[in-house]
Amino acid sequence: MAIIHTQSALPKPNHNLSGNASLDTWVSQVAALTKPRKIQWVNGGPEGLAALNGLLVRQGTFIPLNPQLRPNSFLARTDPADVARVESRTFICSELETDAGPTNNWQKPAAMRSSLHELFDGSMRGRTMYVVPFAMGPLGSPITRLGVEITDSPYVAASMHIMTRVSHSVVDQIASGAEWVPAVHSVGAPLRTDEADVTWPCNPAKVTVAHFPETKEIWSFGSGYGGNSLLGKKAMALRIGSALGRKQGWLAEHMLLVKVTNPKGKAFHIAAAFPSACGKTNLAMLKPSIPGWKVETLGDDIVWMAPGNDGRLWALNPENGLFGVAPGTNARTNSTAMDSLATGVIFTNVALTDDGDVWWEDLTPEPPAHLIDWRGQDWTPATGTPAAHPNSRFCFPMANVTSVAEEWDSPTGVPLDAILFGGRRATNVPLVVEARSWNHGVFMGATISSEQTAAAEGTVGQLRRDPFAMLPFCGYNMADYFAHWLSFAERLTNPPQIFQVNWFRKSSNGKFLWPGFAENSRVIEWITNRLISVAVGKETPIGLVPAKGELNLKGIDVSESDLAELFDLNEQAWLQELASMGEFFDSFDAKLPSELRKELELTESLFAV
Ligand code: GTP
Ligand code: SPV
Ligand code: MN
């Protein structure tokens, strides 16, 4: 059960001091700069969350949903200009540009500090400044890292209660000398005393999400949305986390984590890295369509991994909740998510039904006759624009997940058997391929490309390299990150096996060739059969694919020709693909580990034979 629900302590009285000198000094300094009307410490627990929810309802940011249909749940509508992560305004501020690398936006720390000083000066005027102490990972686990987020958004403070373990015991641990990450967030919309507030204050023109990996600090300005503002998530657990992991010998990854049990009762732990809005939440809650199989959820977005004394790679989800894509979620595609959404959910930018419930595209085969859309406007099927924003999201605690594995908040994590890399690829990339070796698997991760989604700004559908699904989240030079991954060949005596998957290949008429969702269990079956050598596979230049008859297609309607297309390797197209990978590698100059170039050359040579 989630720690925030078992905590019995009442919220600490509202005062300005924690009793810890470094924490108190930082809070006072941030307050002196941002000039809030009031400072409020939050301490987690259901009472703390309920108080914030109540305030958000009173100020109009939260619309309470019909308690008969969706108890204790709320709808928030953002400013239409604040709907996704803003990668172009996300910065890694290392002293040296080469430590941020060619895939990150870089600014010199001193220059960024001076811009931040200007942005945050008086930015919380007229607002309450919340101080939110939180843990990423189970409290008391040696893997867990602590943070404190200061925010002037009660929506962010409430969401942090779901996404992280907010607890006063974090302050106690900091007082005893534990390391912690300071994170400052402001919506960047100061209020005059005579001015009425809007329901979603923000400052889209000046969004700045800055990370200082060397001093382990985070500053975020202007956006209240998701990863821009819930700073335990992408900012701390991935960007600062990856930089820490490099120094300390572990990995912070944009991955889901599941426990899969086969019909013989053998359990496997699998992590999978797919880019934003490419299927992690859905695979994390997979309900297998094949008889006798079980999938249990350990995490849906972030995994921290470290070698254990047994030479295996151990994995833990540092989050306490899910912030998942709503559109496309329904009883057929993800009934577990639907069941888990029954109560205690914050919805953002979905549509509101006339009976006070939520709706989004594809929730039901036929849309309701009337809705209020994500912008707060009347909507009918004739309106012609989506009723829910394509990046609309639901937010609920892991404890809600009806398929949650009991080990999900185990302080040790779980030993990994397999790692999958994937993306949205309409062409070229087969349904599943197994890597020949650890280094080949790292090459697969390093060269993942995917069509862009609505999870960040940019053109939806545009193909881009998104190595390890970490392009927007790696806190240091991506070439050093590749080298760090390669170094695990020596750190692990029993490494997880690596695979690449692609649920999104399309036929020439634009239809998905693979039914996906529950049917992905068939691919998981082949993967686990490979792990226990029940399947032998067939070699190709890009790795091992299922041999004839090894992919279980009993009970589904995938034609022979679609199956052939799902695994088709067009030599010409692949030589072009490899050339484009080579160009991507060139962007890292001499920093690119030679092992990756070798894997590229080996693949090219295998196409030639
Ligand atoms: P982030 O939270 O942004 O990191 O995304 P995510 O990787 O968790 O993505 P999610 O599982 O929420 O999926 C995003 C979209 O992909 C949803 O609209 C899903 O319906 C769709 N999707 C997920 N799995 C499949 C699949 O197997 N096949 C197809 N065709 N679509 C899928
Ligand atoms: C993603 O974009 O990968 C997400 C959503 O998981 S957000 O938290 O907004 O980054
Ligand atoms: Mn994500």
3D architecture notes:
This protein is α+β, with helices and mostly antiparallel strands. It folds into three domains: 21-61 and 86-249, Phosphoenolpyruvate Carboxykinase, domain 1 (3-Layer(aba) Sandwich), CATH 3.40.449; 252-321 and 406-608, Phosphoenolpyruvate Carboxykinase, domain 3; 322-400, Phosphoenolpyruvate Carboxykinase, domain 2 (Beta Complex). The strands form seven sheets. Strands 1, 4, 5, 6, 7, 8, 9, 10 and 11 form a nine-stranded mixed β-sheet that branches. A six-stranded mixed β-sheet has the order 15-13-14-26-30-27, sandwiched between helices. A five-stranded mixed β-sheet has the order 2-3-19-24-18. It binds guanosine-5'-triphosphate, sulfopyruvate (SPV) and manganese (II) ion. Sulfopyruvate binds next to helix 7 and helix 8. Guanosine-5'-triphosphate (GTP) binds next to helix 9 and strand 18.
Unreliable segments of 5+ consecutive residues: 1-14
Bound small molecules, by name, code or SMILES, are: guanosine-5'-triphosphate, sulfopyruvate, manganese (II) ion
Largest β sheet strand count, sense and barrel closure? 9 strands, mixed
The structure class reads alpha+beta
The domain tally reads 3
Helix content: 25-40%
Strand content: 15-25%
* Number of H- or I-type helical stretches: 16
Task: Specify Rg, calculated over alpha carbons.
Answer: 24 Å
CATH topology of the largest domain: Phosphoenolpyruvate Carboxykinase, domain 3
Per CATH, the architecture of the largest domain is Alpha-Beta Complex
Q: What is the level 1 CATH name of the largest domain?
A: Alpha Beta
